[in-house]
Amino acid sequence: MNLLIISSSQRKASQSAKVARHIKVISQQFSHVDHIDLCDYQLPFWDGNNASKYVANSTWPEIEGKLKKADALVLITPEWGGMASPLLKNFLLMADNQDTGHKPALLVAVVSGISGAYPIAELKMNAMKNNKLVPIPDHLIIRNVEQVLNPVLTENIDTTPDLNNREQGLRERIQYSIHTLYQYAQALAWVRQQHQDSPYPKQQEYCYGM
Known about the structure:
Layout: E1 2-7, H1 15-26, E2 32-37, H2 60-69, E3 72-78, H3 86-94, H4 97-100, E4 104-110, H5 117-126, E5 134-135, E6 140-142, H6 165-197
């Protein structure tokens, strides 16, 4: 099972990327884990034309290759003005359901304060319509993010000497969510295989959600 983690802050060295690195280290159930920080890539704004993804200097083909190989995704967004990141929404518009359809996604909101619910609601409501990603029920909201998951886990070593109850509980919740995501990845692999081997008549006529 391959896991693709996507962090979508438009800032370099962001808190979203920090959370992504933490998740990458602890996701040991998966045979391969990759992390994409969208601000490091050159992605055009999607204009509704599939060709727009492949304009000169676009790095979309590199991301597309990783999407094809992924069995599950973690989508991490900061909360800005109560909304998900424009980079993430642009990415989700570009994602083709042939690459992402019926793959489970763990949604993660990152916020410096105590909010964070709005991006999750936004993504669950309208971000999966045509790419057919399947958000699992157990989303995560990382509140007061500057104060948690510090320092970032290094390879197999937690360098934090003492954790308060809130931090310990958060880390355990993240572990649980990754465990659940892995189970969904295993189950939905069968669904994708069935769509390929036993397609519904005129299945391609229903490639877009209602």
